[in-house]
Amino acid sequence: MYKPKILVIEDDPAITNLIRTTLDTQNYQYHTAKNGTGALLDAVSYNADVIILDLGLPDMDGVEIIQKVRGWSNVPIIVVSARSEDQDKVEALDAGADDYLTKPFSIDELLARLRAALRRSRTDETVSQAQASVYHNGDLTIDFAAGCAYMNEKEIHLTPIEYKLLCVLAKNTGKVLTHNYILKEVWGNAAASDTPSLRVFMATLRKKIEQNPSMPKYIQTHIGVGYRMIRQ
């Protein structure tokens, strides 16, 4: 049975030991690195399924590591950092991180984020072919070739902007997308600061796909950061 491989990049021995113990209990393979230089070499050679990354490394900022890794790999990256400001989260996610967990964190939450990242990694090949395929997530279906979306096999009547939003979220299922990323993907650079409009369109989209828009199960809000499509 294949054991997922996790690369842990963390310079705090106590946090490293906590993560190692957690991964041991879940039967994951793992490798650890204490600095950015070693981490980049390991990222190339270890072929990890997921990277867990601290931003405050002694020789290199974690955001720089994300940018370098994204130059050649789409491996899921979960940031685990003491930096809790929204701007820090946005910077890391815009650089290419998939998720952001603030220290101190619970073991259960770390494992849940890790499982979500592994699911996304396993479906990446399918997602990359999305334009010529059909997307399924719970009761939601998107036929990319036909440009149609369905809920419980009934067509949802979406505006062009709502459909674009839904497609961007679907193609990045499980990944936190920042406001700026979504705006650029849907409207282009000209609308990169129009977050209020994004919130309005997201609210109307939720009304059409969520059974209870006030308690959404498909589109999760990350306050001050962005949105995530949840795998059902």
TrEMBL record:
<keyword id="KW-0238">DNA-binding</keyword>
<comment type="function">
    <text>May play the central regulatory role in sporulation. It may be an element of the effector pathway responsible for the activation of sporulation genes in response to nutritional stress. Spo0A may act in concert with spo0H (a sigma factor) to control the expression of some genes that are critical to the sporulation process.</text>
</comment>
<protein>
    <recommendedName>
        <fullName>Stage 0 sporulation protein A homolog</fullName>
    </recommendedName>
</protein>
<dbReference type="InterPro" id="IPR001789">
    <property type="entry name" value="Sig_transdc_resp-reg_receiver"/>
</dbReference>
<dbReference type="GO" id="GO:0000987">
    <property type="term" value="F:cis-regulatory region sequence-specific DNA binding"/>
</dbReference>
<keyword id="KW-0597">Phosphoprotein</keyword>
<keyword id="KW-0902">Two-component regulatory system</keyword>
<feature type="DNA-binding region" description="OmpR/PhoB-type">
    <location>
        <begin position="132"/>
        <end position="231"/>
    </location>
</feature>
<feature type="domain" description="Response regulatory">
    <location>
        <begin position="5"/>
        <end position="118"/>
    </location>
</feature>
<dbReference type="InterPro" id="IPR036388">
    <property type="entry name" value="WH-like_DNA-bd_sf"/>
</dbReference>
<dbReference type="GO" id="GO:0000156">
    <property type="term" value="F:phosphorelay response regulator activity"/>
</dbReference>
<dbReference type="InterPro" id="IPR001867">
    <property type="entry name" value="OmpR/PhoB-type_DNA-bd"/>
</dbReference>
<keyword id="KW-0963">Cytoplasm</keyword>
<dbReference type="InterPro" id="IPR011006">
    <property type="entry name" value="CheY-like_superfamily"/>
</dbReference>
<feature type="domain" description="OmpR/PhoB-type">
    <location>
        <begin position="132"/>
        <end position="231"/>
    </location>
</feature>
<dbReference type="GO" id="GO:0045893">
    <property type="term" value="P:positive regulation of DNA-templated transcription"/>
</dbReference>
<keyword id="KW-0805">Transcription regulation</keyword>
<dbReference type="Pfam" id="PF00072">
    <property type="entry name" value="Response_reg"/>
</dbReference>
<keyword id="KW-0804">Transcription</keyword>
<dbReference type="GO" id="GO:0032993">
    <property type="term" value="C:protein-DNA complex"/>
</dbReference>
<dbReference type="InterPro" id="IPR039420">
    <property type="entry name" value="WalR-like"/>
</dbReference>
<dbReference type="Pfam" id="PF00486">
    <property type="entry name" value="Trans_reg_C"/>
</dbReference>
<dbReference type="GO" id="GO:0005829">
    <property type="term" value="C:cytosol"/>
</dbReference>
<dbReference type="GO" id="GO:0042802">
    <property type="term" value="F:identical protein binding"/>
</dbReference>
<feature type="modified residue" description="4-aspartylphosphate">
    <location>
        <position position="54"/>
    </location>
</feature>
